[in-house]
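Retro notes, item 3 of 5
We never archived the inputs for the fe (ii) ion complex last cycle. Fixing that now. Sequence and ligand:
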Amino acid sequence: MEQRKFVVPEVVVGKNVMELIGRYLGHFGSRKTMIVADKNILKLNWFQNIINNLMKKDIEYIIFDEVSENPRDYEAMLGAELFLAEDCDSIVAVGGGSPMDCAKCISIVCTNGGHILDYVGVDQIRLPGPPLICIPSTAGTAADVSQFAIILDSKIHIKKAIISKKVVPDLALIDTIPLLTMDTYLTACTGMDALTHAIEAYVSNAASPLTDVHALKAIELISKALPNAVSSNKEEVMEDMLMGSLHAGFAFSNASLGAVHALAHSLGGVLDLPHGQCNSILLEHVIDLNFEYAQDRYKDIAVAVGCEVEGLSSEEIKACLIDVISELREKLSIPEKLSEKINPELAEELYVNAINDPCMVTNPKNLSYKEVKGIYEKIFKE
Ligand SMILES: [Fe+2]
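Structure as it came back at the time:
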């Protein structure tokens, strides 16, 4: 058996678990916490419940909400400066992937000093940060359980990955309530991001029996629940989305990702587009190129999304899987192509950044420059 490592944080799931925040910060001995949050959730009732809970437990707090959709290096630096100036001793990230990634970066800099970009790459962080608790508001990113933090190098518009056990949060409080307050397009895009995490983890060169079980479960749950999550917004459907995203997070945090994320990171960095939307548009094209390099794995995925594969040829299984994915994208009203034309000045940057992205390393097929260019040409408006 090959040697494999599997890292996950402490996880508490269920309705109203976010109200455990004060008790857990008390366990960590925290007196003053920094809340890193999306601006658009500050007025929601459930966010106010978090604040009330802190006040009840006499824990002081400050709110840092200077976080863009694709968080920038300078935002993390600003947050770290504020954390130290305000003498905080813990961080609570509330929202989607952006505040959670930014919170992870703040925790690195406020403990290790220097600039956040000094820590890009694998295992570059020396000291663990202050206690970090994540309360996700979407079922998709799984930054609340992962070893990844993605940050935009704002000078060159490249999204950089920081991969380390030291950015795994200390605790994830995963609650269904915030999911019920998100708009449907965000639910659609973040759900497709979670499905992509599971698919890429399952076909990854670094997959293992420990990650496979989570990846397949995630694919089953998300492919069934996602259309209902967008149309009905019911609590039991959101529970399936929450569990699907969590399983996908356990899988990809330990098996890494592939070409969909490599191309999506490049798109998100150069054009500042939403991460989930980029993945949704790219997924079917990457499966088309990858399929023959991981046929048995994609066959399992096809079964998990509901294809009847008995008696089908490989080509037919591939066609069924791609059809299911593209029909799902259409049901979610996510477009087939981006609304802009490819800008020739930025095109070269887009291709090169994708090829150099660390997620490309674990893709089952080594994609050439021509193939990467070919995929991008399919997803831009003609
Ligand atoms: Fe992702």
